[in-house]
Design brief:
Blueprint (H helix, E strand, L loop, with lengths): L17 E5 L5 H12 L3 E5 L4 E8 L5 H4 L2 H16 L6 E4 L3 E4 L2 E9 L13 E8 L8 H4 L12 H25 L2 H9 L9 E4 L5 E4 L8 E3 L1 H7 L3 E2 L4 E2 L3
Parallel strand pairs: 1-2
Antiparallel strand pairs: 2-3, 3-7, 4-5, 5-6, 6-7, 8-9, 9-10, 11-12
Helix pairs in contact: 3-5, 3-6
């Protein structure tokens, strides 16, 4: 299970974090991966942009990469809980397997996970980086039909102050998630994640495998489960537009 180190808080982040603020054109995820080995656990890179909420946090696992990647789900839960804590009433935060973040039926953003490229599956990685991008404001240059496939925080009734508060709330929810993992095992993390992942059918039985793959068990006894690879899906990052360096529209 990843850990956070004890350091003096920066801004409104709790103990365990060190803030690294980047300029508007910075890349929080790439920067987090670049500095992770030296900066250490709890370093949170934040890009100060008005149109996106963009940040990445460095984690230090204490288990092999093949299972340590499950920290991704703790991060997703923390983002979902942070958004839910600040959103207008009766709105729903949901996930698209494994990394897309939806709000009230529209794509809001997503998350990524990085690790050392030379780390073997059975070795403990020196670091993980969990990165998040959420659309904070609508883009003026995006056409009406194209924009309908995505949503923004401000467009959905959030206040401007909420965009920074979501990062602060995320940092606290992430620590809570890791505490639960340590005390009760991974099952509560998996359950919370799967509750926000829409079902294809009402009767399907779902689980997260030891390596983080999604397993959907068929109704027929003895038949193998339908397996969706976490690693393959993270590599695809279907929600992410690399040209715009943000969530896709359409």
């Amino acid at each position: 299970m990843p850990r956070l180190k004890d350091v003096e808080p920066s801004l409104d982040l709790p103990p365990g974090y060190t803030l690294v603020a980047l300029r508007e054109f910075g890349d929080a995820f790439a920067h987090g991966c670049d500095i992770a080995a030296e900066a250490g656990a709890g370093t949170l890179a934040w890009v100060r942009r008005y149109d996106l909420v963009e940040f990445a946090v460095v984690l230090e696992p204490d288990e092999p990469l093949i299972t340590a990647r499950r920290a991704f789900f703790a991060g997703m839960n923390a983002v979902g809980d942070a958004i839910a804590a600040h959103c207008p009433p009766e709105r729903e935060v949901s996930f698209g397997w494994p990394d897309a973040i939806w709000f009230d039926g529209g794509l809001l953003g997503g998350a990524r996970l990085g690790w050392p490229k030379d780390c073997d599956e059975n070795d403990v990685p020196a670091w993980l980086v969990f990165g998040v991008i959420l659309r904070a404001a609508d883009m003026a240059y995006i056409g009406e039909v194209q924009a309908a496939a995505g949503v923004s925080l401000l467009g959905e009734g959030f206040e401007m102050i909420d965009t920074e508060a979501i990062i602060e709330s995320f940092s606290r929810h992430l620590m809570t998630a890791f505490d639960r993992w340590k005390e009760r095992g991974f099952d509560p993390i998996a359950r919370d994640y799967l509750e926000r992942l829409p079902r294809r059918t009402q009767t399907e039985r779902r689980a997260l495998d030891r390596n983080g793959d999604l397993l959907i068990r068929p109704a027929t006894r003895g038949a193998p489960p339908d397996r969706s690879s976490l690693v393959d899906a993270l590599a695809e990052a279907a929600w992410y537009d690399p040209r715009e360096r943000g969530p896709k529209f359409g």
